[in-house]
């Protein structure tokens, strides 16, 4: 890709990286999603990428505070996973950080 030699394995678990695995296939990230949903008191088991996206779109149509919180939690989760991934790959920084705490902190400060 553009002359860059980028490893195709996902840094959390060394499986091949693709969008399904990146956000819903990896056991570590499933746990992050599950914990974020539990934190905002939403019951839903992470499913396939298409199903999860459809579920988020349906639940996100409302203007209720719970819907807004769900959208914020989903956005922050995707952002923080991607950010942590990029820091690890491109800056060669492996930070021992709790992504869940970063997500919750961002939600609290933005909310």
General description of the model:
This is Reverse transcriptase zinc-binding domain-containing protein. It comes from Vicia faba (Broad bean). By secondary structure, this protein is mainly α. It has one domain. It is 62% helix and 0% strand. It has five helices and no strands. The protein has helices at residues 19-25, 27-39, 49-59, 65-90, 99-110. Helix 1 packs across helix 2 (27-39) and helix 4 (65-90) crosses helix 5. It is globular, with a radius of gyration of 15 Å.
Detail the topology: elements first, then pairings.
Elements: H1 19-25, H2 27-39, H3 49-59, H4 65-90, H5 99-110
Helix pairs in contact: 1-2, 2-4, 4-5
**Unreliable stretches covering 5 or more consecutive residues:** none
Structural class: mainly alpha
How much is the radius of gyration in Å?
15 Å
- What is the helix/strand order? HHHHH
Per DSSP, the total helix count is 5
End-to-end separation in angstroms reads: 38 Å
Largest sheet: none
Protein name: Reverse transcriptase zinc-binding domain-containing protein
Organism: Vicia faba
